[in-house]
Amino acid sequence: MNLKAERTLNQGKYVLSTQLGAGVFSLTYKATDTESGQSVVIKTIGEALRQHPNVNQFKQEFLDIAKRLNYCQHPHLVRVLDYFEDTGYPYLVMEYIPGQTLADVLQAGSLPEAEAINYIRQISDAVKVLHQVELLHRDIQPKNIIRRQDSDRVVLCEVGMLYEFTPGVQQTYASFLSAGYAPPEENTLTPTATPQTDIYALTATFYCLLTGSPPLPAPVRQALLAKEKDRLFPSSSQPASSNLSSPIQQAVKSGLELIPNNRPQTIDTWLKQLPLQESVAIPEPIIPQPVKTQPHSKPYPRKSPKLKTLPSKVTKGQHSKSCPRAKGRSNTQNPVLERREGTRLKTARTKASIPLQALFMTGAIAASAGIGFGCAVRLNQPGEPGSTILHTQQTFPPRSDWPVSESQL
Fold it and tell me: Which residues fall in a compositionally biased region of kind Basic residues (predicted)?
């Protein structure tokens, strides 16, 4: 049952516009967020799962995985903005990314080695974020990678959310696997997925970017291997592969090993086999922030990336903070710094001399005042007592009636 256009979800917050995809297990729509006015993508379980007896189990798994994806914030991984239930069914809201898929880009031919490495490193970083919260993508391929419009940034989409099903549903799911990108363990009746499963699909995607087509399907490769005819790079059918460097071919062979334990056990281990490239700082795209609503389980903590600080280059004549200063002057001293240092010392000396000057000035003023007072006393010779303030001695007329207290015996 497909949802009709103009239908509203989550109490009118989202309005559906067009259907983007209709699979056996999921339905995908383009919609509008009425609060922000932005376009978004909404995904829900498909009709086959809605009619399944274990629909409540699938609904809970859908919401639990949506919550974990909500914590996976990475510029090369599609962002989950919201998740909710409406009329008994789960829904997942993701950012809408305008641009071309790498499958569309490959219509013009294979990519240069440097460009393919650049894209695959971006996608590898996104897959590592999924593995940190114990999620697998399960469907890495060029059609699920979008190159943002007017940029060289790619984003991994279509995370495989509905793979923990009952055995019957798992067998149906296996029949829809993309040939060439699914490893051998995905083609069994009881598929077991590990991080090596994503490494195989990641390497197959890299192979396709380099050659223009995916590798042979895993069952075909297994049959050829039994006859000792498994060749990943048949130059006759794929001329582009003959131009690949030896390190690239070795990285592809290790990632496409048919036995999971023979593949690199982590993405970082596999990436170390690729040639190094100079990293170029690219502005981060402006992406809506996710909305954390309706918790269903204990959230996975987000891990802050560890930034590596590169040591600065030490040239001759420079000394690190941990080393004592060398005696004497270096031959490479900066004249600007010397002028600044001289100005600083001169200012310090000037400030230090101010108290001494003030002391001399105070002494001079006191000495002048004392000399002036002495001269005034010397020159002013009053004729009679009390005539001036400098002659304060006064006489009084004689009296015989001074009061005398009588002694008390």
Answer: 316-328
